[in-house]
Amino acid sequence: MKKPSIVVITYPGEVGDDESVAAQMSSFFGEIIEVTSKSLIVVSGDIHNIDNESIHIIKIPFRESGRHSLLARTLKYVLPQLRILPKLFKISRSCDTIIFFSLAELYTGLIFITRFLLRKKVVIVHCGLTSKILAVTYNKKLFGFGAVVSYFIRLLEKASFSLANKITVESKSVVKFHGLEKYQRKIYICQSYYVDTRVFKIEKDIKLRQNLVGYIGRFGEDKGATNFAKATGKIAESDIKFLMVGGFSREFSKIEGILNENKTRHKVTLVGHVTLQEVANYLNELKLLVLPSYGEGLPSIVLEAMACGTPVLATPVGGIPDIVRDGETGFILEDNSPDCIAKNIIRALEYPKLDEIIKKAHDLVEREYTYEPTVRRWRMVFSPRNN
Known about the structure:
Elements: E1 5-9, H1 19-36, E2 39-44, E3 55-59, H2 70-91, E4 97-101, H3 108-117, E5 121-125, H4 131-138, H5 146-163, E6 166-169, H6 172-177, E7 187-189, E8 212-216, H7 225-231, E9 241-245, H8 249-262, E10 268-271, H9 276-283, E11 288-291, H10 300-307, E12 312-314, H11 320-323, E13 331-332, H12 338-349, H13 354-368, H14 371-381
Parallel strand pairs: 1-2, 1-4, 2-3, 4-5, 5-6, 6-7, 8-9, 8-11, 9-10, 11-12, 12-13
Helix pairs in contact: 1-14, 3-5, 4-5, 7-8, 7-12, 10-13
């Protein structure tokens, strides 16, 4: 099969200094797309930590203002496109396909120019962070204009999806959850991340672990982190401890306020950003991972937990129903209210056949979400037969 020459455009602000996110991006660019393409150029505002000399990275200067006003967010959307545009005209001469990665799907103007002026194939990698999820964050902010912003983002998404030649989503459930059925003919099931089982593996048997229940991820509203913190106050069992990993220091005060109000601060360990190996170490200490999100694509932390033999309790959003089946490969929350989270934590910890769930979940990751099956799916995306 003839390999395409590829340009990947990313959205600024998505990588930052979080090693686990940088590793995921490195996995996508350096170990998935790079092996399925003839040449690869990445255009990004802030990507780093990719140690691969065969990938040419073009960094677009972008300074985060730290402000969250409507004007600041508008500038964050418009300015990178203006800076990327001249680079795009120059490098497009030597490429076949341009991938708009994650939130770069909102660059509708660039997508239009790429498809109809430069006449290149457009692939949108839809990772699940869309207006449906952003609405949770914006609706009560931006001086009452949050709902308007969410609606505008949704219009941009629809326009971009209509313009694209192909759209990749991380699982079948994502299609329905994000309302993408009308684009079915151009959709490919193909995750942008694979589980490295050299890092994420079972190091400690579940029977040897303490009753430690954890949340690992951003401490954002859309992730349900505050609901998890509130749930700690609704569990009376004294031997259950809690762990929350991955928050920014500025987010700790809100979580600590909830825990102090619950009188459970002494039972909860708060940890900031950690390395990928540290995530694996924490997962091997947990008896249960909880992810009470309002929306997702296919969250890597769920797959990583399964690879580490850690049961998962999660909301049935995005691609989660494809991998977490209640009582079979994990546990599902009816909703992400604190009461529901607390009730289901007890249910999961007391489940009599936990070993069977752990084995089925581990086997699923090995079979479907490791390196080889992931690369095979991406080769199908770029296959000439699918053009």
